[in-house]
Structure formats: C-alpha cells, structure tokens
Design a protein that fits this description.
Serine Threonine Protein Phosphatase 5, Tetratricopeptide repeat; globular; five-stranded parallel sheet; 24 helices; two-stranded antiparallel sheet
C-alpha cells in the first residue's frame, strides 16, 4: 500500500520533467529554425544585391533622420555614388523629417519600406530624443539577461508581444481620450491624462491629435485634428496643430495656409505666429520670419521659443549684440532651454570671446556634470584656443558619458528599426553624427550588429576643421560640437558615406 503514492508521485514528476524537456526541445528546434531562416533570408538578399550589381540595376537607398537629413546630404550622396564608376545606378531617397525623434522615424519605417522598396536604409538619428538617460548596464540588467536576449526565440516572442500591445493600445485609443496637451500656450508641453472619456468634443480631438503628432502617428493626427474642426470650424488650436503637422511633413504651402487660418480665427495665437516664422525661414525669407517671431513676442512676452528663434536669426546674420540679448532673454524665461545656452556659448566663440565661452560652458557643466553636449562644446573652444590637451580631456569625457548613458527610448527604437530591416533582409547603414564617436552606436548593437554597416564621421570632420573654419562646414552648433551642415559639410558627409558603401559593394563583388 505504501508504494502506490510513491509511484503516483514518481509518475507525476516524470510527466513534469517530460513536459519541460519537450518545451526545451521545441525551443531549441525553433531557435535553430529561426537562425537558419534568418541566414537564408540574408543570403538571398545578398545574392539579389550581387545580381543587381552585375546587371547594372538601380540600387535604392532610403535615408532616414531629422533636420540633419531633410534636404541635406542625400542629394550629394546620390551624386557622389553615381560618379563612382562601379557599374551600378544609385537612387537615393530623402525621407528626413525636421524635428523628428526616433519614435517618429521608426513609426513611419514600414510605410516607407512599402512605398519605396529600398535595398538599403541609412539612419542618422537620436539627437532630438529627450528624457532621463540611464546607465547602459541597467538596460541590459545582467550578463544572463543579455545572453537570453541574444536568442531568436526571445526576439520573436518580444516582437509578438509588442505587436499585441500595439493593437491593444489602438483599441484603447479608439475608446478613450488620451494625454491632454496645452497647444495654445506651449505646443510641446505635456499635461495630465484625461482618463475614461471618449473623444466627444473639439478639445478632446485636438488633444488626441496633438499626442498622435508627437508620437509620429501623422495619419491619425491629421484625421483627429480635422475632426476637431468639424466639431468647431473656428478652432484655432486645431488649425495650429495641422500647421505644425504639415510643416514637419515638408508640406510647407499647406502649413502656411493653416497657420494663417489660425491667426484669422484668433489673432492672439502666438504659437501660430512662431509656426509662420519657421515656414518663412524654411523659404529663406529672413525678414518675414523675424517679423512673425516679433509678433509672437508682442502677443506673449513669455514665449521663450520666439526669443530664441530671433536670436538664432541675428546670430546667423552676424548681428552678435542683438543675438546675445535675445538668447539671454530666452534663458531667463525658460532656464531649461538648452539650445539657447549652447547658441549663446557659440556666439561668444564666434566673436573671439573664447575665455567667456569657456567660462560659460564650464558654468553649465558645474550645474549638470553629465551634459555631454556641453563637454563637446568646450572641446571645440579649447581646440580653437590651442589647448589640445584640455580639448582631448573634454572629448574623452563626452564620449565616456555617451558610452555609459543612453536614453532607453533611443536604444529601444534603434533595436526596433533593426528588427524590421532584418525581417525584410534590408541592409542597414547606421551612421553617427559629424564630430561624434561611433563607439556609443556600436555599443547599442553589441552582440546584435550583423547586417550593419557603421559609418564614422568623427575623424573626417575633425581633420577638415584643422584646415578650415567651423562655419565652412556647419551653419549652427545645436549639437554642441556640430550643427546642420553647409553644402560643403554635406558634400564631405556624402563622400564619406559613399566611400564606406562602395567599399562594402566592391568586397561583395570580389567575393
């Protein structure tokens, strides 16, 4: 009698062990299949690329990023690539979005891939991402977690979970109101959530539309903002939202119409005037742009964004004293306006006031010792002062910070982008900004860098600045140690990208 319970327990234990063994075997088989399938997909894509190269077919390259990509280097890249006689016709597609964060870029990726069917995707992104930066180690948690995340099964489960979560959020979004954003007072400031309410008023639809805009969900944003206008045809906030949306998409003419309509409805809408200022600056109509920024200030003397834009305009014209006053005013109104700090420091440098620029950047570093942008700016100042040892110290400190601290949003979006490209077997060119070290990007993709070509733009630009002036290559310095490129800078950038891409092509042809 005493043996029967033991037999039952033994049988139960065996069943559990067999069940776990079966699950383990299934995971091993699935992992092997996924790895083999991934290898076959990449091999087929590479074979397709080699055939296209030998047949002299057109090779499409999609360029993604923000304002440093939008109407910047892609034109020069296509020109440079097609000047190299390697028997391939290159077509370069520029889909940079001014002001975009990495979420905007990744959220539009599938649409662009369907529309343009590229053979290669180039990104230069992340500078616009904000939020608390955390130690990279806290993102990976431990060596065991890192090891587990390297499995294809983990990535498959994670992708399925993200897809299900996305669908759930879409359902929730359709039945609930979302985060409210105070558009009229400051277009970029989040406000508390409105829970449990269906979008049923003009205000609800404006708030929902603006949130979608910030998330890069442009189609939904446009639909919601237009719905707000249906509720209330004199909703200046909805018209302003559509103005910003169209400007981000490069639909400048439509953007201008909606900003002007918002002003007709509400002549006191200061952010609509700022938007019009941006539109006219895009068209290089400096006087008209400045006039709209001044009108915004006249309506709302606390609009730090308008003061900053005027300071930037005067700085670019060499009107240093006026620019200094406007930058200082922007900072006094909003001490968190980091771009005003950076531009003020560069203003001192451009005036030859290097000691003041040094003191200014040092002061900002004392307030925030983890501000890598300020260390980069200080590096440039020391370089111009001829103090190369201090410049090198600042460079190392900036790189150390970038290697140790990442925005988890940026890291996540880089990995999401690569997952999408890997799934389609599309070659990925991951490019770093000018003057910046490539190492932080490589660290993001540590143990997951297959099918990636890295483009390092640090050395070529630093070498160029030894021979020329900063303003020869950059129009501003929004990144601390770099800014938007001049034509000369964009050409240098394009030549370096082309050099790396062609080298990769030639290696494949020879192999």
């Amino acid at each position: 009698m005493s043996n029967k319970p033991v037999c039952k327990i033994t049988n139960l234990s065996q069943k559990i062990c067999l069940m776990f063994f079966g699950v383990f075997c299934f995971i091993i088989i699935l992992e092997t299949g996924l790895r083999l399938g991934g290898w076959v997909l990449i091999s087929l894509q590479e074979h397709k690329n080699r055939i296209a190269m030998k047949q002299k077919g057109a090779y499409r390259i999609l360029c993604l990023g923000e304002s440093t990509t939008d109407r910047q280097y892609p034109f020069f890249l296509e020109e440079t690539l097609n000047q190299n006689s390697i028997g391939i016709i290159f077509s370069v597609i520029d889909k940079g979005m001014d002001g975009a964060v990495t979420f905007n870029i990744v959220s539009r990726l599938e649409f662009f891939l369907e529309q343009y069917r590229p053979d290669m995707v180039i990104t230069m992104m992340g500078i616009n991402d904000f939020g608390n930066h955390v130690p990279y180690e806290s993102l990976t948690n431990s060596k065991i977690i890192t090891f587990l995340r390297s499995f294809r099964v983990y990535k498959l489960v994670r992708l399925a979970w993200l897809h299900a979560l996305s669908k759930f959020r879409e359902i929730k979004f359709s039945s609930n109101s979302v985060t409210a954003i105070k558009l009229g007072e400051n277009y970029n400031q989040d406000q508390p959530e409105l829970e449990g309410l269906r979008p049923k008023s003009q205000v609800d639809f404006v708030n929902s539309g603006v949130l979608c805009y910030k998330q890069g969900r442009f189609v939904e944003s446009e639909a919601l903002l237009k719905k707000a206008i249906e509720f209330n045809s004199i909703s200046d906030k909805a018209f302003t939202g559509l103005g910003w949306l169209y400007r981000t998409q490069g639909r400048i003419a439509e953007s201008e119409i909606y900003f002007k309509e918002a002003i007709l409805i509400n002549p006191d809408n200061d952010w609509a005037y700022v938007g019009l200022g941006w539109v006219y600056r895009d068209r290089e109509k400096v006087a008209e742009a400045e006039d709209y920024f001044r009108k915004a200030i006249a309506i709302n003397p606390k609009n730090d964004g308008a003061y900053f834009e005027l300071g930037l305009s005067y700085h670019n014209q060499g009107k240093f004293f006026e620019a200094e006053d406007y930058f200082k005013k922007a900072i006094s109104l909003n001490p968190g306006n980091i771009w005003a700090y950076i531009e003020l420091g560069w203003l001192y440098r451009d005036q030859g006031r290097l000691e003041e620029a040094e003191e200014y950047f040092q002061k900002q570093i004392s307030k925030n010792p983890k501000d890598d942008i300020m260390f980069s700016a200080l590096e440039m100042v020391y370089t111009e002062m001829g103090n190369l040892s201090l410049a090198e110290e600042c460079r190392q400190k900036a790189n150390e910070l970038r290697l140790s601290y990442y925005s988890p949003v940026t890291v996540s979006n880089y990995h999401k982008l690569k997952e999408i490209l890997d799934k389609r077997g599309i070659k990925y060119v991951c490019m770093q900004y000018p003057m910046r070290s490539i190492e932080p990007l490589k660290k993001i993709f540590k143990n997951n860098d297959s099918n990636i070509i890295f483009v390092d733009n640090e050395k070529i630009f630093k070498d160029a600045l030894k021979e020329g002036k900063y303003r020869d290559y950059f129009t501003d310095s929004f990144g601390g140690d770099f800014g938007h490129c001049t034509d000369k800078g964009n050409r240098l950038l394009a030549e370096n990208i082309a050099r790396v891409i062609i080298k990769d092509f030639i290696n494949k042809i020879e192999n």
